[in-house]
């Protein structure tokens, strides 16, 4: 019905009625709410503890700061394990057979997506044969794209878990990350383009690697936002499978863009 502090009770006159002291503006936690959501409300409230009530508003317990820390730790651990494709209940005491079984499933999914990137590369075998130097820069394009995608993905998954990013502000988040991707793409693209030009003495190669890097970092930013939001819309934990799909996008798009530009430059005599 209300809340009153111990200080108010101790310092009030003995004849004071309790309902005149208490505040009826009470922040409560529904018992049916998940521990993670309860922890977020407690953390945002600024109180050391909050009452937990049932559907009828009856007091059934409380959640204090100790429970808050435990819930936050459990949630952070679960998200970190999911991003790495490890079971949420992974511990040293967990049977090796079960741990290996759970991990190999995601490794097999990752292997299947890796063959998509291999299929893209195989379509440009003749291009690589004519300009073998392109093969030396392929890991650079894929690696930078994967790192950029992981940066965006980590931020979005964390923000989704904390409730800072939702479908209501998805457009603003999307434009923000897109702008960051363009800025980073221009910076890294220009830098790697100059390195490729000075290293191999080919302006054409520098332009190809620079433009490909710009495009792949933009795609990495887009995938880092769209993949977790799409999984959340499908009621799938964004931390569970996002990294695999983001890496697939950066690998496939990066190789296709880089080798496609390389083929064009080769046909025009710039390589």
Walk me through this protein's architecture.
The protein is mainly α and 271 residues long. The protein has ten helices and three strands, in the order H-H-E-H-E-E-H-H-H-H-H-H-H. The chain has helices spanning 6-11, 18-21, 35-45, 65-83, 96-122, 125-130, 133-162, 170-200, 203-233, 238-267, and strands at 29-30, 49-53, 59-64. Strands 1-2-3 form a three-stranded mixed sheet. Strand 2 and strand 3 (59-64) form a beta hairpin. It is elongated and about 95 Å long. It starts with 5 loop residues before the first helix and ends with a helix. The model has no long low-confidence stretch (mean pLDDT 86).
How is this structure best summarized?
The chain is mainly α and 271 residues long.
Structural descriptors:
single chain, 271 residues, mainly alpha, three-stranded mixed sheet, 10 helices, 3 strands, elongated
Rg value:
27 Å
Runs in which pLDDT lies below 50 for 5 or more consecutive residues are none
Say how many strands there are: 3
Secondary structure class reads mainly alpha
Amino- and carboxy-terminal Cα gap: 78 Å
Q: So how many helices?
A: 10
Beta-strand fraction estimate: under 5%
The major β-sheet equals:
3 strands, mixed
Order of helices and strands: HHEHEEHHHHHHH
What is the residue-mean pLDDT, rounded to a whole number? Answer: 86
Helix content: over 70%
Strand sequence of the main sheet, in spatial order?
1-2-3
Shape descriptor reads elongated
């Amino acid at each position: 019905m209300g809340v009153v502090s111990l200080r108010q009770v101790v310092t009030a006159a003995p004849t004071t009625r309790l309902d005149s002291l208490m505040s009826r503006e009470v922040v409560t936690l529904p018992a049916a709410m998940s521990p993670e959501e309860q922890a977020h409300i407690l953390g945002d409230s600024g109180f050391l503890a909050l009452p937990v009530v049932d559907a009828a508003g009856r007091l059934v317990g409380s959640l204090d700061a100790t429970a808050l820390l435990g819930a936050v730790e459990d949630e952070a651990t679960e998200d970190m394990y999911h991003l790495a494709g490890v079971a949420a209940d992974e511990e040293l005491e967990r049977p090796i057979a079960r741990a290996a079984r759970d991990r190999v499933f995601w490794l097999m999914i990752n292997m299947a997506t890796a063959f998509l990137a291999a299929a893209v590369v195989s379509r440009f075998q003749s291009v690589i044969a004519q300009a073998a130097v392109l093969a030396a820069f392929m890991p650079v394009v894929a690696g930078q794209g994967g790192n950029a995608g992981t940066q965006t993905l980590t931020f979005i998954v964390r923000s989704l878990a904390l409730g800072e990013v939702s479908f209501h502000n998805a457009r603003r988040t999307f434009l923000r990350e897109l702008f960051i991707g363009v800025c980073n793409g221009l910076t890294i693209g220009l830098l790697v383009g100059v390195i490729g030009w000075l290293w191999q003495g080919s302006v054409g190669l520098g332009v190809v690697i620079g433009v490909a890097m710009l495009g792949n970092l933009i795609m990495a930013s887009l995938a880092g936002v769209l993949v977790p939001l799409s999984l959340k819309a499908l009621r799938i934990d964004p931390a569970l499978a996002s990294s695999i799909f983001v890496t697939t996008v950066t690998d496939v798009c990066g190789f296709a863009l880089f080798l496609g530009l390389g083929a064009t430059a080769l046909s025009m005599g710039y390589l």
